[in-house]
Design a protein that fits this description.
Heat Shock Protein 90, globular, binds adenosine-5'-diphosphate, 7 strands, 2 domains, 261 residues, binds magnesium ion
Length: 261
């Protein structure tokens, strides 16, 4: 992310971009201000837990500290995402560091990274046997397929899609498919899942900042509702776009469409 920060710009042309810039700056400021107190909460709770001697604290206190630490860590992740969103919102197309990216390689890197992050694959259930069951991932792409893109940003975009595909899915057997194809001279990278799907009335809104479908029935809504807005931004920077196909209760396919260079 350092690279992205380094390239951050402040656009000043036109009223619209001024307003956006102010909002972005507030986001960035707020998130940085939150980081310091949080690192104290997380750091102290972790140290106390690590140095704990047997019998020194009641079970209740230990549990409370563990919760403080766990929630603090979650909050840190949320804040890092806000910072990331603010930084990428500030980028301009000329800031991209485009090069040839091997699509199969980035597909497999991103999917294994998302799947290793344990809390994203915890299924809310009293039955522990279905917890942490890794999704079944299928990657369909030739070994030598390459596209011209900013690798760091493409990874971020794919991570958001894979993260959604895993989280908005109540199946015990989660299936993920990452595939590439060419269509009308465009490079398409798609992520398909067998998750909850998105109802028609929400499809137009899921790319709006902070939008989350609130009737999602597992109560697993975390995050900011910024993921898809970020992916859309990344695709706009590349001169491409993003499309959704979804059937409620069946699954979703989200495609990143890149123009050929
Ligand atoms: N693959 C998917 N399957 C079902 N719903 C999805 C999927 N991806 C996104 N959504 C819906 O779109 C909303 C916005 O997604 P996103 O911008 O990534 O925000 P977040 O993941 O933080 O909720 C989600 O809250 C969810 O309701
Ligand atoms: Mg998301």
């Amino acid at each position: 992310m350092e690279e992205i920060k380094k390239h951050a710009h402040h656009t000043t042309a036109g009223d619209n971009s001024l307003a956006k810039d102010a909002a972005t700056r507030v986001l960035s400021l707020v998130s940085h201000k939150l980081k310091t107190p949080l690192s104290i909460i997380n750091g102290y709770s972790e140290t106390i837990l690590a140095e704990l001697k047997p019998g020194e604290m009641s079970n209740f206190s230990i549990k409370a500290l563990e919760d403080i630490n766990k929630q603090g860590e979650k909050l840190s992740i949320l804040i890092d995402k806000l910072v990331r969103f603010a930084n990428i919102s500030d980028l301009l197309p000329e800031d991209l560091q485009k090069k040839e990216i091997n699509v199969r390689k980035i597909f497999s890197e991103v999917s294994s990274k998302c799947i290793l992050r344990d809390d994203s694959i915890t299924i809310t259930s009293s039955d522990n046997t279905i917890r942490d069951r890794a999704p079944n991932v299928e990657i369909k792409c030739d070994n030598d397929t390459k596209i011209y893109a900013d690798g760091a940003l493409l990874s971020i975009a794919l991570e958001e899609l894979v993260d959604n595909a895993i989280r908005f899915n109540n199946n015990v057997n989660k299936k993920l498919r990452l595939f590439y194809y060419e269509d009308q001279g465009k490079d398409i990278l798609a992520v398909a899942d067998n998750g909850v799907g998105i109802r028609e009335q929400h499809i137009g809104k899921i790319f709006h900042k902070f939008y989350q479908v609130d009737d999602f029935f597992t109560g697993q809504i975390e995050g900011w509702g910024l993921g898809l807005a970020l992916v859309k931004r990344i695709m706009n920077l590349h001169g491409g776009n993003i499309t959704v196909r979804s059937q409620y209760g069946v699954g979703t396919i989200i495609s990143l469409v890149f123009p050929k260079q």
